[in-house]
Design goal:
Bound molecules: phosphoenolpyruvate, manganese (II) ion
Largest sheet: 8 strands, parallel
Structural class: alpha/beta
CATH class of the largest domain: Alpha Beta
Number of helices: 11
Strand content: 15-25%
Mean pLDDT: 95
CATH superfamily of the largest domain: Aldolase class I
Oligomer: single chain
Helix content: 25-40%
CATH architecture of the largest domain: Alpha-Beta Barrel
Length: 336
């Protein structure tokens, strides 16, 4: 439930409403806005009888929200949230932020080469996986902590913040020591215990959409993180599973503007996992920017033909550099 106050409501009236909500046994979360202040009611399982609240002075409207998410919704928080990563801001109309790097961290040399190439091309944040959620147990599972060290070193040497995936609660402490952003992979989008712990950690989180998740489920997952007090959450569309097998997944691009309507959180697109094909990555990256994406996550490998993971969808350094140039012109056209 959401209580919208009159723009002229006094602090005293606000306080009375908070007390009334707490008297019903729920939590009251004030949401100051530019035009109006609202109070979110948290902790209710079903419909709340609002009669004692509706009649209080200063209350303009009571909205019953029957969705599995509240704190991430735009009804609840009309202004767009900007997520800060180092010197970069993601969302809220800021220029799109480009995250790039290999699928997996394979060696010190590979990570350094990838970092230099994406940095020279103009990337902002370096990616690389140290713990890999592979479909089968016989595939390369990642270098673990050694990989995290290579990633951090490559990020520091090229002056880029880094992002990497955390797969389990037990890895959180370790991954947080090395990474500026915690990535929750598609396969873990509904690992609710992990989401809660990540919410308590206070580091920015990139939450990837599960491959069969509806937007309601996606936002419900984001709500788990925000409900723990961490609103620094970036949503990432990375393609969904459909009947089509010609692409690895189906890029659901219309969710970019739709998520912006539904939620105040920034939305980025991963065209690499969405298509699975190098040839499709540049055009879908540009399409994502036109759709209003707040950033992109793109896989780049110095030698994709030798990649231990996702080579077919990885751009070369040159390919990425070409794409970055094309995107610079597009961004100017889009007014960034
Ligand atoms: C990745 O980013 O390398 C990855 C495994 O992505 P996803 O969770 O979207 O499959
Ligand atoms: Mn990958």
């Amino acid at each position: 439930m959401l209580i919208v106050m009159d723009p002229q409501a006094t602090d005293e009236q606000l306080q009375k409403v908070r007390e009334a909500v707490e008297a019903l046994g729920f939590r009251a979360e004030p949401i100051p806005g530019q035009q109006r202040t609202a109070i979110g009611v948290l902790g209710n399982q079903g419909y709340v009888d609002d009669s004692t609240i509706r009649e209080l002075a200063g209350v303009r409207e009571v909205i019953h929200v029957s969705k599995p998410y509240k704190m991430v919704s735009r009804d609840f928080h009309p202004e767009s949230t900007r997520v800060r990563v180092g010197a970069f801001e993601i969302g809220g109309g800021a220029a799109p932020v480009i995250m790039a790097g290999p699928c997996s961290i394979e060696s010190e040399e590979q990570m350094m080469r990838a970092a230099r190439e994406v940095k020279a091309a103009g990337a902002h944040i370096l990616r690389g996986g140290a713990f890999k959620p592979r479909t089968g147990p016989h595939s390369f599972q990642g270098l673990g902590e050694q990989g995290l060290k290579f990633l951090r070193q490559a990020g520091d040497e090229t002056a880029m913040p880094v992002i990497t995936e955390v797969m389990r609660i037990e890895q959180l402490e370790l991954v947080s020591r090395y990474s500026d952003v915690l990535q929750i992979g598609a396969r873990n989008m509904q690992n609710f215990d992990l989401l809660k712990e990540v919410g308590k950690f206070g580091k920015p989180v990139l939450l990837k959409r599960g491959m069969s998740a509806t937007l309601e489920e996606f936002l419900g997952a984001a709500e788990y993180i925000v409900a723990e007090g961490n609103d620094q959450v970036i949503l990432c569309e990375r393609g969904i599973r459909t009947f089509e097998r010609a692409t690895r997944n189906s890029l659901d691009l219309s969710v970019v503007p739709l998520l912006h309507e539904m939620s105040h959180l920034p939305v980025i697109v991963d065209p690499s996992h969405a298509t699975g094909k190098r040839s499709l990555v540049p055009v879908m990256s540009k399409a994502a920017l036109v759709a209003g994406a707040d950033g992109l996550m793109i896989e780049v490998h110095p030698e994709p033909e030798k990649a231990l993971c996702d080579g077919a969808q990885s751009l070369t350094g040159d390919g990425f550099s070409q794409l970055m140039q094309e995107m610079q012109s597009l961004m100017k056209y889009l007014g960034y």
